[in-house]
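Sequence in, structure out.
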Amino acid sequence: MKTTIREIAASSKYSCVGGPFGSNLSGSYYIDSLGIPVLRGNNLSEGETEFIDSGFVYVSEEKAKTLKQNMAYPGDVIVTQRGTLGQVGLIPNDAKFDRYVVSQSQMKLTVDKSKALPEFVYYYLLSIRARCHLKVVTISTGVPHINLSIFKEFPIVLPSLAEQRKIVQQISEIAKTLNILKKQISCAINLRKSLINQIF
């Protein structure tokens, strides 16, 4: 079934939103101490990892209360809307924080789980099909960007929930294998360096 992001967004308020407008979240609101983390491009990738739960700047609890429409939570899908388009993230259920503020350059989607799995939507947005459509709808004047209206009408091919689960499981298994191989390669590189240092 072909549908859109708008159709699979949860019915709750602020289920598909962009970041706050300009001055509502400028650098002057960042604090040095631990507060509510702000999601930026460095927390997303183009498929290398689902979510980078580090490298944050923070805003105070008081400031976060004024940005409740721009909050993201575990299970939400995050996409970059300005700059490095194609970055996608999925906040894991075991994330370090229970909520995050979406920056001006990102958008977030809370998925209606009776229609789609957040993991499936995340993987779909990384697909060649989705990336090709992204190129078509990108506004190229100035910094490349899309807006919330474009994102809401973004097409998505949606199989049944059972089929989505199968696809997600298959991709997840491959991702786990890749992570194991990466660790093994890293260990091999470190061992090689150690041997070279011992010999010479």
